[in-house]
Design goal:
alpha/beta, Rossmann fold, six-stranded antiparallel sheet, globular, about 350 residues
């Protein structure tokens, strides 16, 4: 299957093939921009876990991080593994205690990264024949306080086996009393089989938040490349940039999907495009125009083909003076490996 004909699985990365990773890299041009590449496991990762600073940006509860259970490791060689994250958070916790022994023992978020909390599913909104928006309630007056690029972990039981996956909420980080996740169901996905049984009123186990990504002050432009549900970690990243009146960073999103009906968040993308510093392009590879039950809207930037190297390089040539950084979310085996070859 072509790399842009397969959806990424922020929603369900149950095998190595379906893992989604987040790549941060600068394009190798003739400019003097410093080149760097960072590779982190995420969930659509986008199937995405975004990079965060090791020190003070980890969730601060004042308590020692809990060591993960052996069952929380999927055994697929994820990088970082849940145990890598534990070691990082434990080191950061120890450093904070040395600097601030009086740290408070409570967190602004109702969730904790070191334990799972049962939250009630309040609504399911179908967005296509395979993807839905799932809303969960939070205690009254609370919000996730999720930084851009942050994600949560979901734990469920599949035929007596504990399954843990990472998801990036797409609701506003300061939404009061709820949060929403965008999940695509796959026929053979372990977590998909659990989510498929969800009904409104049931509870699910969540922990977090984990991770974050904040643009560097020197970044004049961010180019966001996503495959399928890999767009999820970018939603609040773009939202934060659009709400920051002092931000001078330009953002360009290149989103590859199989069908036009798989584009998310379609309405929000059109709204953001009215801002001076956001543009996007849609690449639909699995169906021709009008063949998947969805029609392009007036002015919608749709290209009925796969995202190609020339598209990425075309954006690179349009970059203004200053640093341009490329953020990629997609499957490890296909889209991200291809994109890494394209952009260095």
């Amino acid at each position: 299957m072509n790399s842009y004909e397969q959806e990424s699985s922020v929603s369900d990365h149950s095998s190595n093939r379906d893992e989604c990773i987040f790549v941060e890299t600068s394009f190798p041009t003739n400019s003097a921009d410093e080149s760097s590449t960072e590779l982190n496991h995420s969930s659509n990762e986008s199937p995405s876990r975004l990079n965060r600073a090791e020190s003070d940006h980890s969730p601060d509860t004042g308590e020692e991080p809990r060591r993960p259970l052996d069952s929380e490791c999927c055994g697929s060689g994820c990088s970082p593994c849940v145990f890598d994250l534990y070691d990082r958070d434990l080191a950061a916790w120890r450093r904070r205690r040395l600097r601030q022994p009086e740290l408070a023992t409570t967190s602004a978020s109702p969730l904790r990264p070191d334990r799972f909390t049962a939250l009630t599913l309040t609504s399911i909104t179908a967005l296509s024949d395979s993807a839905s928006l799932y809303r969960f309630s939070l205690p009254a007056g609370t919000s996730l306080c999720l930084p851009p690029g942050g994600h949560l972990r979901l734990r469920a039981d599949d035929a007596g086996r504990s399954v843990t996956r990472a998801y990036t909420p797409v609701s506003p980080p300061d939404a009061q009393g709820y949060f929403e996740v965008y999940i695509r169901l796959y026929p053979s996905g372990a977590m998909s089989s659990c989510v498929r049984r969800w009904r409104v009123g049931q509870t699910a186990l969540w922990s977090g938040p984990f991770g974050e990504y904040r643009p560097r002050p020197a970044d004049r432009r961010l180019v966001l490349l996503a495959a399928g549900t890999g767009v999820a970690p970018f939603v609040n990243l773009v939202r934060a940039a659009m709400e920051d009146e002092d931000s001078e960073t330009r953002l360009t999103l290149l989103l590859a999907v199989r069908r036009l009906q798989d584009v998310f968040p379609r309405d929000q993308l059109a709204q953001w495009a009215s801002y001076w510093n956001f543009t996007y392009q849609l690449f639909v590879s699995g169906a021709g125009e009008g063949t998947d039950g969805a029609e392009p809207r007036y002015g919608e930037p749709v290209r009925w083909r796969r995202l190609q190297e020339r598209d990425v390089r075309e954006v690179a040539l349009q970059s203004a003076a200053g640093s341009t950084r490329y953020l990629v979310c997609g499957t490890r085996s296909n889209s991200v490996n291809v994109l890494r070859r394209w952009i260095g």
